[in-house]
Design brief:
By secondary structure, the chain is an alpha+beta fold. It has two domains: 4-80, Phosphorylase Kinase, domain 1 (2-Layer Sandwich); 83-223, D-amino Acid Aminotransferase, Chain A, domain 1. The protein has helices at residues 44-61, 97-103, 132-138, 143-166, 215-218, 224-240, and strands at 4-7, 11-15, 21-26, 29-32, 37-40, 68-73, 76-80, 83-84, 87-94, 110-120, 169-180, 186-189, 197-201. The strands form three sheets. Strands 8, 9, 10, 11, 12 and 13 form a six-stranded antiparallel sheet that branches. It has a five-stranded antiparallel sheet with strand order 1-2-3-7-6. Helix 1 (44-61) packs parallel to helix 6 (224-240). The structure holds uridine-5'-diphosphate. The site of uridine-5'-diphosphate (UDP) has 13 residues, from strand 9, helix 2, strand 11 and strand 13. The site of uridine-5'-diphosphate has 13 residues, from strand 9, helix 2, strand 11 and strand 13.
């Protein structure tokens, strides 16, 4: 019998008959600002499951080890059991969100090279930004693991940026999580979706209309479901047309 292993803000993880495999179930629940804002985005679970599956399969084809195995229902995928490293790895190509708020750099400024940032995945502490020294101090990962994660994060950014460009979308920034599998190998885990990426429509110059991600929910911009659906359609079109290969 599958039992609930963990319930997060957007997904529930269940055990399966195989201890090496978990079932990840995507929910319609949406939260923002460290769960101070809560709501529902109708159909989000199915949309994010589809987008995550397509993007993780694409990244696996590019040689990135991931936890994804197969999709088994509109909202559920089988994934390899991994021990999540408690880091939120954020990659940024364009200034937005906390980088704009905390540095004063203008929203929309294109970075001359991608920025990789490590945040401590800890809701009680509000997911604080870590320095390299604090990372070492806290022993959240070995220096070798940190360097592997940084390398994967930059590779993933290159692949996803190219993929989304073919969809007419700018990948502004995104958050990744990594885990260790039974062989102690680092694998990309969690999800890649409009919940965890900032995605701007290249065909729109208006700073509100171009937003196709969770910022529509965070800032009450409306048309949240439609934006997520647009991402699903364009991602699937890029995959099926082979444009992603
Ligand atoms: N992000 C995420 N989960 C988090 C924090 C951030 O998926 O707990 C994503 C967010 O959607 C954005 C990127 O990471 O694509 C950078 O987020 P930022 O640090 O700018 O945070 P925010 O503006 O949401 O405070």
């Amino acid at each position: 019998m599958p039992t609930k292993l963990y319930e997060g803000k957007a997904k529930i993880l269940y055990t399966t008959d195989d201890p090496a495999v978990l079932l990840s179930c995507f929910k319609d629940d949406a939260t923002a600002f460290n769960a101070q804002k809560r709501g529902t985005i109708t159909g989000k679970g199915a949309i994010n499951c589809t987008i995550t599956a397509a993007l993780l399969a694409y990244l696996a084809d590019q040689g990135i080890p991931t936890h994804y195995l197969e999709t088994v229902s509109p909202t559920e995928m089988r994934v390899r059991a991994v021990q999540i490293i408690p880091l939120e790895v954020v990659v940024r190509n364009v200034v937005a969100g906390s980088l704009a708020r905390e540095t004063g750099l203008p929203v929309g400024q294109v970075l001359s090279r991608p920025l990789v940032e490590f945040y401590y995945k800890n809701d009680d502490l509000g997911d604080p930004l870590l320095t390299g020294d604090r990372l070492q101090l806290m022993e959240l990962a070995t220096p070798e693991q940190v360097s592997t994660i940084q390398h994967y994060a930059l590779q993933i950014n290159q692949h996803l940026t190219a993929f989304f460009n073919r969809c007419g979308i700018t990948l502004v920034d995104f958050k990744l999580e990594f885990g260790l599998d039974a062989q102690n190998q680092i694998r990309l885990a969690d999800e890649i979706s409009p919940d965890t990426c900032r995605l701007w429509d290249q065909g729109e110059s208006d700073p509100e209309r171009r937003v196709l991600d969770k910022d529509r929910f965070r800032h009450d911009l409306g048309q949240v479901e439609a934006a997520y659906e647009t991402i699903r359609e364009r991602v699937l079109k890029a995959v099926t047309s082979g444009a992603a290969v």
